[in-house]
Amino acid sequence: MPRSKNKVASKARRKKILSMAKGYWGTRKNVFTVAKNHVEKGLLHAYRDRKLKKRNYRSLWIIRINAAARQHGTTYSQLMHSLSSKGIGINRKVLASLAVDNPTVFAELVSFATK
How far lies 87's CA from each of 82, 90, 102, 113, in Å? Predict the structure, then answer.
């Protein structure tokens, strides 16, 4: 009995990997075995960095809030504690955007919270 190779599925599988490797440099884009390794590694980085992105943005927001709070004579931790004790439930993303885009509103918020 002759061996069945299933050319259609094999070609589709290779084509899928090579299309994912589009834009890579050198043999990474057109040699299947090399492209397969680099696509797998790229997918691993993409999975990991979706989690890291959230951490990086949160730290960026904290840095921005701290810099703006220090301009008004307080620190990040003191500001967040006073906001929570006053019952102001505003998240770090909104606070950071207020600090950058609307410094007057941020100043009023700091003065209200630290009284």
Answer: 9, 9, 21, 9
Do the beta carbons of residue 92 and residue 62 sit within 8 Å?
yes
CA dihedral for 53, 56, 62, 68, sign (positive or negative): negative
Query: Could you tell me the pTM of the whole model?
Result: 0.74
pLDDT tens per residue, range 86-105: 998 899 999 999 999 999 99
Q: Quickly tell me which residue has 């599925």 as its tokens.
A: 9
Instruction: Provide CB contacts within 8 A for 21, sequence distance 6+.
Output: 28, 29, 30, 35, 38, 39
In a domain? residue 107: yes
3 found inside a domain: no
